[in-house]
Every structure is written in C-alpha cells, then in structure tokens.
Amino acid sequence: MVLWSPTAERIERSVLQEYLDWLQEREGRPFPDHDALWAWSVEDLDRFWVSIVDFFDVGFSVPWGEVRTLDPMPHTRWFTGARLNWAEHALRSGADDDVALLCVREGGGPAREITWASLRQSVAAAAGWLRRAGVRPGDRVCAYLPNTEHAVIGLLAAAAVGAVWSCCSPDFGADGTLGRLAQLEPTVLVAADGYHWNGKDIDRGDVVARLREQLPTVQHVVHVPYVFDRPAPAGTVAWDDVVADHMPLVFEQVEFSHPLWVLFTSGTTGLPKGLVHSQGGITLQGLMWSGLYCGLRERERMFTFTSTGWALWNMQLGALSRGASIVLYEGSPRGGAVWEVAARTGADVMLLGAAVVTASTEPPGVDLGRLRHVMVSGSALPTAGYHWLLENIGSHLRIDSTSGGTDISGSFVGGNEYAPVRAGRIGGRIAGVDCAAWDDDGNPLVDDVGDLVITQPMPSMPTELWNDPGEERYTDSYFDTWPGVWRHGDWVTFHPDGSISVHGRSDSTLNRQGVRLGSSDFYDVLDAMTEVAESLVIGVDRPDDGYWLGLFVVPAEGHAVDDALRDRIRSTLRTRLTARHVPDEIVEAPAVPHTLSGKKLEVPIKKLLAGRPLGKAANLSSVDDPEALRWYARFAADRL
C-alpha cells in the first residue's frame, strides 16, 4: 500500500534530480528516474563512481591511475595512486559565520552553536597538538566519548594528521571497551568523565582509570571534563589545552585506501572484529549518501539520534561535506525528547533507529514543519511506525527506511526522491550497490525470502579487518558461502515493484533496538560468575515486529536459576555492558549443545526458536549433545 508519493516539484528541487540532469548531459543518454540510474550504475560501475568524483568535485591532490583493480572482493582497491584527505572535504564547505554543530544535552537548556570558523580552528589546534605529541600517519587515536563536539573535533583532527580513529561510547563498560580498543594499540586516548541518561549523571571515572591502566601503549591521555567539575587527573592533558592554540589547518595527503577509522562489529564469536574503512572510500560514500539520498544542501541541518558506538554516528558526518550542520544530542530519547530537539534545532533531515519511532506513542506537540525527511535504520520500521509518523509529524514527510551497517558505514538499500513510501517496505537499492536475494544454491530470488548478497565491490567496503593476516577473518566473515560475493547475513525479499523487505538476521548476530550486540560480550561477563556453568544468548525477531532476547543459563553445581541469580545476572550485565544487554527472559537449561569442534549452536537454536523444525535446523550427527538440542527444540515448540 502506497502511503506517500513525491510531487513533481519536490523531485525537481532535489539534489538527486540536479545530479541526473548533469549526468544526462555528460553521458548523452536519458536518466528519467532513479531506477534508470541504479541500472546504469551497476552495469558500468567504474563510470558511475567516476561520476560521483566529478559531480561532487572530490579533491585529489594526486590523480588516480585506475578506477579499481580487477581483483575479486575483498581484494579490490579503488582509485589507485590517488591522494586526498577526508577531513579536508568535511571542512571545505560552510561559511565561517554559519553554524556547523548544534550541541544539545538532555535537560541541558539551549543548544550550543559552534560555527564553521570555530570548528576549523579547534580541529587545527587539536591536529597541531597531535603532531607535537608524536602522532604520525597510521598511528591510532582512540576515544571514550559521548555524542558531543569533542568526538567530532577529535576525529577530524586525527584524520587531518592521517591517524586512525576509533571511539567507544561511554555506555560501554570497561571490558567491552578494552576488548575493542586494546586491539588497536593506541598512542592517544581521549576520554570523558561521564555522560547523561534518563535524567542521571553517569560517572565513568572508574572506567577511564581502568582504560589507562590496561592500555599500555597509550602515551597521552586527554581529559574531557564533560559531566563533572573536576580538574584533569594527574598525568593527563585537559581538553581546553588541546584546542587552545591558533594553528594553520594542515591536511596530510594520504592514499585513497589509507585507513580513516576502525568500526567494531558486535563480537558474535571471539573478539569484536575491527572493520578498517578508508579515507577515500568514506569520502565518496559520504558525499553520495548525504547528497543524493539525504538531499542535503549548505545551511540545512541533519539530526541523528545515535551514540558514538553506532555507525550512524560516523555516517552523519557526511553532512558536513555538503556544508550542512549536524545536531549532536547527548542523552536518552525518553518523553519525546528527539522530536523536541528536532523542532528546537530546525532539523531538515532526521536519522534514527526504528525503536525510537515505535516507542513514541503521543503526538510530540511541537512544530516540525521544517522536517522533510525521516530516515530510519537499525531494524525494520513496523507498519504502525509509518502511520504514526505521517499522522503525528506530518503528511508531507518522506519516510525512508534504510538498511546497511557498520560493515560499510553506509546503506545497501533505502529510499530515494522518486520512490513512493510503502508501509513496511524499503524504497529500493542504492546506486552503485549490486545487491540481490539469493537462495541456498546462489540463485536470485524475486518475491521470496533469501540471503542478501552484494555481487560487485563498493568503495566503502572495509579495506581489511584489523590484525587479520592473509585476510582470513575477512573472507570467513563475508565470503565463506560464495567466494567473491559478499553475504551480509540478512534475510530479505526483493519485490517485483522494486521495494524491499528485511526480515532480520540470518546468522546469530543479536540486533536489539537497532543496535547489534555480540554474544561473546555476554559470555565474557557470565563466564566469570561462579553460579553459572555455561550460558547461551539468542535473539529472535517476532512476527509482531518485536524482538525477544533470551538467555539460557546452565547453573553451576549447587546453584539454581532462581530470582536472586536472575537479578544478579541482570545487574551484572547492565553494569559491565549496557542496559541493552539485559535479556527479556532468563531460562534455566540443562546444557548448552556445541558443534563437535566446541562452538555453541547459536544459529541452529535461533532457527528452532524462529519456528524451523529440528531436522532442518541442525544435523544431530554434528552435535556433541543431541539430547540437549532436543530440549531446546521442545522449549521452542512450547513457545510457538
């Protein structure tokens, strides 16, 4: 059912139409709509990405030799020989006196406005400080920061120097943070003293102290006194001192594939994987996405409800390259706060998780007439969410459900200015993304559920996984099913009208409230509890658009899974990880079944809980304890 269609006037005013008109003249052929663009973009992938370079005037200080190498994924390299700097593109637009960042704190009063001139000066000062601290291209600068200007300035400064950035949100505990940042062996750590959530000031001084103790490669610690009025701890540098000096803004020119940042996966098996994204790939991805799909222009404003631990935080920064402002909100979404912030800051475009929309029950009671476009990510937006937005935010609104991920710091599928809005559907495929649904034998499917695959490379795919000699983990993660074809791990349906439905994960990854959670993070915490012999965590998408996060616990000898143990498990997970890690249900189980090589049977048990019969969920001959798996089959049958 079509809920909304674009007007001819809206299409005509769009950045997408401006690009299509330019492309039609350049190529000498018609591009009547986005469908024509997509078809051409995957037929002539190289020419499409060159058109993005030219239309958005990507500034290469050294020209490229070839658009891409002919090596199969994941070995493809783009724009070989070219040199550029991502931060230079992020900061090149925007008049000095215009606002670049609007910083809003939960319950914190008016937005703090940071002009482009002030942002450039702070980045120049921080980059100069990093250089004086000995940071060189390829060194790692890591952070433990909430969604504030400190994170944006820190990333831009690190990129200007050619350093590699990675940030964890302070709602992560020490263990989850160390499991990520320690892999990178950082030389600089930028850390805040706390954050705000649900009306509370959350102190993270103890976590930062542990990070300082257990990150032995860190030579410099920058203290950000964000929540508490405390002096900088001994042996640290105050943030104000880092950004105090007036310095020239110097951008290190690096090769296209030079690492920009490391985003971490959820850690479903073993340590979280560090996805290394390139300066060049993110420059192109950010310009295309913020321009053609967000439709942003200079002086417009984008508000993303996110934390620094979610890829949406990184994606929003593409708006800066368009000369648009970004709204940084630090706090919880309770009580309609996101809508109030969007109204107060005059947001033109919003990006948020579907869970924020579904949690909204009352009309926001604020004027959101300027808001033209709401992009929803993280999980599929339920049908009721579409109706709520159109009824309570405005019938003029373009609702754009998207799907992509940390893996590419972008989207594979989403809406566009030509696509109608259908309840429960994603508008279509993003230009340059050759994706499809395949069955188990690698045959394309239409109007049937299959595995989401990408059959041609994208510039924003990771250049590598961190510390992955021979690219073995990279290959195993995405290319183990079909060599040279990216298998993303989502169940999807491509409909005949071009729209797409995403049904959830086809692997064991947990996706709660739009945020992926790693099962290994749970196990790291629970294995240390003397009352727990073993545990198994499973997440299942429900037919009612809900999500069930279940924890199966095998109690240690002499213990039982009673209310007291359940309370302690919940408290421990909330304290050492995040509130999102607290399960919906804790179930006592007789055992946890494994493969013969010792891996927990997360995927087969997830399939049982999703309704698949035992014979199709697992091969009992490959299970170390078939009777234990039968127990889970009976548990699942009783629940269905």
UniProtKB/TrEMBL annotation:
Residues 525-599 form the AMP-binding enzyme C-terminal domain. Residues 97-457 form the AMP-dependent synthetase/ligase domain. Keywords: ATP-binding, Ligase, Nucleotide-binding. GO terms for molecular function: ligase activity. Residues 35-90 form the Acetyl-coenzyme A synthetase N-terminal domain. The keyword rRNA-binding does not apply. Transmembrane segments: none annotated. It holds the Pfam family AMP-binding_C. Belongs to the ATP-dependent AMP-binding enzyme family. This is Acetoacetate--CoA ligase. It comes from Pseudonocardia ailaonensis.
